[in-house]
Amino acid sequence: MTASRSWRSEEVARNDRALLRAAREVLAVDGAHASVASIAARAGVGVGSLYRRYRTKQELFQRLCLIALRDYLDAANEGLAMDDPWAGLVHYAMASIRSGPGSLAPVAGTFDVTDEMTELAERGDRAVAELVERAHRARVLRAGVTAVDLELLIEQLSKSPLQEHLQRQGRTELYDAALNARERIIAVALDGLRAAPAGPLPGQAPGYELFTMRWAPPEDEQPASE
Amino acid sequence: MTASRSWRSEEVARNDRALLRAAREVLAVDGAHASVASIAARAGVGVGSLYRRYRTKQELFQRLCLIALRDYLDAANEGLAMDDPWAGLVHYAMASIRSGPGSLAPVAGTFDVTDEMTELAERGDRAVAELVERAHRARVLRAGVTAVDLELLIEQLSKSPLQEHLQRQGRTELYDAALNARERIIAVALDGLRAAPAGPLPGQAPGYELFTMRWAPPEDEQPASE
DNA sequence: TTCGATGCGGAGTGAATCGCTCCGCATCGA
DNA sequence: TCGATGCGGAGCGATTCACTCCGCATCGAA
């Protein structure tokens, strides 16, 4: 119980990271119905190992939420640190969309909120409010847009129904195309659909198979492991 | 079996409409995990009545999907009938977002696709392609935007995590505010966040409680009936 | 090489929920 | 009053859930 317990702690840490990553991924796909078995399988560990680290499913989600709140606050502060108000706002939005507080929304209300989480959320809200106000002062943000509007838009863009479907069906070969398509969508939503582009759309135009494939019967259910 | 079977057919039709509406609502909230019991309860009928009209859960979803495809095609044609290319495109997008093919996405691949459905989908795709091309010819649509981009954006905007959460918790008093907030988000996504507004944002600015309330413990689980 | 300790994967468990069936009852025209 | 009809929901077997527990592989120490 002294300093001698450095035995294989690296593997422990690695497993823990894999567990958290797997939990976030599975949660994004299955929502609140995500099962511990699928999380453990995706992380490549047994359920026993999961329960040795987290006493309950809720405790895992709680930890996951705390990490997301930290990322969220970091992203806002990074945005504030940028000189260009618009670039800072976009940086925050992009980072939040990617690490997805929106994907954590389904578990909201399923566990107790700790004081630490409340404080992190408040600090994040303050930073975002400052980000929005600064953008308004520079007149680069549409008049009337509030911080709540921004947060809700981010939440709306956080989930990716297309990628979830692909993952459920195990169509990994289309994953890159789906990622590209999503980047375009986000760019459009942030920059606007009207003809007055802030630049050319990134990447290639997505093909129709992204739209048609999900209607085909899943020829192979997701192995849910490895 | 002749023309004399008009007995109470109005109530039957009313029940059927209630069933379809309930199914769409429950599906939007619970996704593919939607249970027949919750659908029947929300429609205010017993599961027996549901199974008298639809032999299986998949058959109900199939019918639901067919109706959505029809609405989808109608919306596209209505958009084409409008003189202003931009207004037509927005009309289609708004109608599609509201009647939500996106909320049907979770059941994609869970039942067989009939020929009628395939044909409706193809006709819809053609109409949307024409809508997009016309907007491009009039130079009112951002360069590089394809029909698939548009469809994916519509799908992205179709689901409403906020409203789903409210419904799950039974907070009906915030429903109007959530609806208003969603209208703003959609307007922003379609018009763009950058300072060059196409007009003032509609409705009132949403309050912070929309964002904080979902973290509060649900003081009353959804009664799921009536 | 042998031994105790440690953390591992996953079969097993009771509870909950699923889609679906079936039956008693209310409500109608005759 | 009586047969017919459609209704709501209790009940059924099957499935899935969160969680427990145990045999085994792998390590340092002797």
Automatic annotation (TrEMBL), chains A, B:
Single GO MF annotation: transcription cis-regulatory region binding
Keyword DNA repair: no
HTH tetR-type domain mapped to chain residues: 13-72
Keyword set, alphabetical order: DNA-binding, Transcription, Transcription regulation
Transcription regulation found in the keyword field: yes
Ranges annotated as DNA-binding: 35-54
Annotated protein name in UniProt: TetR/AcrR family transcriptional regulator
Organism of origin: Nonomuraea deserti
Taxonomic lineage of the native organism: Bacteria, Bacillati, Actinomycetota, Actinomycetes, Streptosporangiales
